């Protein structure tokens, strides 16, 4: 396989017929190009091919992971371009489907606008086909936890639920398993919402709002505008669940046609649990069952995940933290003194926000990645700061700096794309470095 155009070989292995989907003929015979061949692009390609679309894919990266995905599309007549974007992959198409990591300023989308070709997201494709009831969750922080908990509560209540979206399991990947009467608990990012058209969840949840993704959006207003699209197609038959303690989120009620339900943190429930409880109430789930699920929930991988203890030093993987707010949440929920590993690719964050809380909880900072200089400038003078070239080196430095009873916390506040393919790879490498350290020490 070279870096240009090629046709996937005709291997056997057709996907089973999605008989229970809605609008099964909507994409049939349409000429469609998918931009991006990561997880959502791969899942969307599989289902669109199965529905009879004429497919092309264009992906600017050309690495081992992308080539593995390309090889999974073992069908005839899927024209795939790797390592570049070419206008011939856009011109003359009926529709462009964009993956969430592709910005609106990317060349394929610029060409699509020039050629007057509609651009939609993978979640738009899936929502057109989905026979299940969709509960969509967005916000700056907490999306994955809330989306997961909603799914678990529905399952505990005896309902069939699919946990999908930006959580790592693409919406379109489970479509052939869904039926009317099922539920989808769907994490949606602002990136995915940018290119929806008819996406209409039965329940939309907006957890919170703070500055984020300023590497993609010009200002906070543009970021909020993308978030608000989650409820733009809702009406009085739908619900919008809002955080009454977040002034920006609370005011969204004035712009929505849906029935608004507010949630708030209480002594017994943190904000994430309060949001889930509100959704459960709308769906008629027993409160005692909800509380039982909360008590049994052990969290999600890469979000305040306990890894191990070495010499009475706890190691916690919070790789999913890509904002200052999410790292503040981690600091709030850890009682031990902390040696904090931070850094990665900057998203326009204001790291000085960390100063007050860090002074009370953090013993030392270990900084990695492209944002080292900016983070160091914001935090210099309050606590010791060390720099590391790799995450593995950062783990070793943190262990040497930590004392018995401390916690070594990876909570980067930044995206992972300077050093890793995603936050999951970053978290896995952190855990491996910790386990390797444990083997060395013991």
Task: Walk me through what this model shows.
With 442 residues, the protein is α/β, with parallel strands linked by helices. It folds into three domains: 5-117, 3-Layer(aba) Sandwich (Rossmann fold), CATH 3.40.50.720; 126-296, UDP-N-acetylmuramoyl-L-alanine:D-glutamate ligase (3-Layer(aba) Sandwich), CATH 3.40.1190.10; 305-441, Protein-Tyrosine Phosphatase, Chain A (Alpha-Beta Complex), CATH 3.90.190.20. The chain is 33% helix and 19% strand. It is built from 15 helices and 18 strands. It has a six-stranded mixed sheet with strand order 1-4-3-2-5-6, with helices on both faces. Strands 8-9-7-10-11-12 form a six-stranded parallel sheet. Helix 8 (247-250) links the parallel strand 11 and strand 12 (259-263). Helix 14 (391-401) crosses helix 15. The longest helix has 19 residues, at 423-441. The termini are far apart. 48% of the residues are buried.
């Amino acid at each position: 396989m070279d870096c240009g155009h090629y046709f996937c070989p005709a291997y056997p292995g057709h996907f089973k017929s999605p008989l229970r989907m809605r609008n099964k003929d909507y994409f049939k015979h349409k000429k469609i190009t998918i931009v991006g061949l990561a997880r959502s692009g791969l899942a969307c390609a599989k289902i669109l091919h199965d529905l009879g679309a004429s497919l092309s894919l264009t992906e600017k990266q050309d690495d081992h992971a992308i080539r593995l995905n390309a090889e999974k599309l073992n069908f005839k007549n899927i024209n795939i371009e790797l390592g570049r974007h070419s206008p011939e992959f856009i011109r003359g198409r009926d529709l462009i489907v964009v993956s969430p990591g592709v910005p609106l300023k990317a060349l394929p989308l610029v060409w699509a606008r020039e050629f007057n070709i509609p651009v939609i997201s993978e979640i738009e494709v899936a929502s057109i086909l989905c026979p299940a009831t969709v509960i969509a969750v967005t916000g700056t922080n907490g999306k994955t936890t809330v989306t997961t908990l909603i799914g678990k509560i529905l399952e505990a209540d005896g309902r069939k639920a699919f946990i999908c979206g930006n959580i790592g399991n693409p919406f379109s990947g489970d479509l052939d398993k869904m039926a009317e009467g099922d539920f989808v608990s769907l994490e949606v990012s602002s990136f995915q919402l940018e290119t929806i058209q008819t996406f209409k969840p039965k329940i939309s949840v907006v957890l919170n709002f703070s500055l984020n993704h300023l590497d993609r959006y010009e200002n906070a207003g543009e970021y909020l505008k993308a978030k608000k699209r989650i409820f733009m197609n809702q009406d009085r038959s739908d619900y919008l669940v809002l955080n009454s303690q977040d002034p920006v989120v609370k005011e969204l009620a004035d712009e929505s046609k849906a029935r608004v339900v507010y949630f708030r943190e209480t002594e017994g429930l943190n904000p994430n649990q309060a949001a889930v409880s509100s959704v459960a109430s709308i769906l008629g789930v027993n409160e005692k069952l909800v509380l039982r699920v909360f008590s049994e929930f052990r969290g999600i991988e890469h979000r305040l995940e306990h890894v191990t203890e070495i010499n009475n030093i706890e190691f916690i993987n919070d790789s999913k933290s890509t904002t200052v707010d999410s790292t503040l949440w981690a600091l709030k929920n850890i009682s031990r003194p902390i040696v904090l590993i931070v850094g990665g690719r900057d998203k326009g964050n204001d790291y000085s926000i960390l100063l007050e809380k860090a002074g009370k909880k953090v013993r030392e900072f270990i900084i990695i990645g492209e944002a080292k200089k900016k983070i160091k400038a914001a935090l210099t003078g309050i606590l010791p700061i060390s720099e590391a070239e790799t995450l593995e080196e950062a783990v070793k430095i943190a262990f040497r700096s930590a004392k018995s009873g401390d916690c070594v916390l990876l909570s980067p506040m930044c995206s992972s794309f300077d050093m890793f393919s995603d936050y999951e790879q970053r978290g896995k490498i952190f855990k491996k470095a910790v386990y390797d350290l444990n083997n060395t020490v013991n």
